[in-house]
Automatic annotation (TrEMBL):
<dbReference type="InterPro" id="IPR009009">
    <property type="entry name" value="RlpA-like_DPBB"/>
</dbReference>
<feature type="domain" description="Expansin-like EG45">
    <location>
        <begin position="9"/>
        <end position="99"/>
    </location>
</feature>
<dbReference type="InterPro" id="IPR007112">
    <property type="entry name" value="Expansin/allergen_DPBB_dom"/>
</dbReference>
<dbReference type="Pfam" id="PF03330">
    <property type="entry name" value="DPBB_1"/>
</dbReference>
<dbReference type="InterPro" id="IPR036908">
    <property type="entry name" value="RlpA-like_sf"/>
</dbReference>
<protein>
    <recommendedName>
        <fullName>Expansin-like EG45 domain-containing protein</fullName>
    </recommendedName>
</protein>
């Protein structure tokens, strides 16, 4: 697996530590989702679909966009934090994931905005994990 250390401020909120959600479940996104920075703060529900040696854990995780992909060109649609990656995969190998953007209303279930495919990002001074995605659009 290809990794890179990041010692820089995020494109969304610089060095603010309060931008990172509980459990450090966050992502950096590539050009396709970045939307000239409008992606900052968006939330996605992710699920591992497949990979070598059956790496996927059951269930989904909710992540927050905190950065733009630090590599050019970006190796995937989404780069997960190492904590987010570990929450859905048993290995550090490349995986295929599915994502859906949602908006959470106070006290209500998340509203699904759209479905697509994506990958991962990390907090300051952490490792970006690279993975490839599928084009699946169904999230259970």
């Amino acid at each position: 697996m290809c990794c890179v250390c990041v010692d820089a401020a995020t494109k969304c909120n610089g060095n603010r530590q309060d931008q990172f959600p509980p459990g450090n479940l966050f992502v950096a996104v590539g050009e396709g989702l970045w939307d000239n920075g409008a992606a900052c703060g968006r939330r996605y529900r992710l699920r591992c679909l497949s990979g070598s040696n059956k790496p996927c854990k059951d269930g989904t995780i909710d992540v927050k966009v905190v950065d733009f992909c630090p590599k050019s060109p970006c190796p995937s649609t989404v780069l997960m934090s190492s904590d987010a990656f570990a929450a859905i995969s048993r290995s550090d190998a490349k995986i295929n994931i599915e994502y859906v953007q949602y908006v959470s209303l106070s006290g209500a279930s998340p509203l699904i905005s759209f479905a697509s495919s994506s990958s991962s990002s990390s907090p300051l001074s952490s490792i970006y994990m690279y993975m490839y995605l599928s084009n699946s659009n169904i999230l259970k």
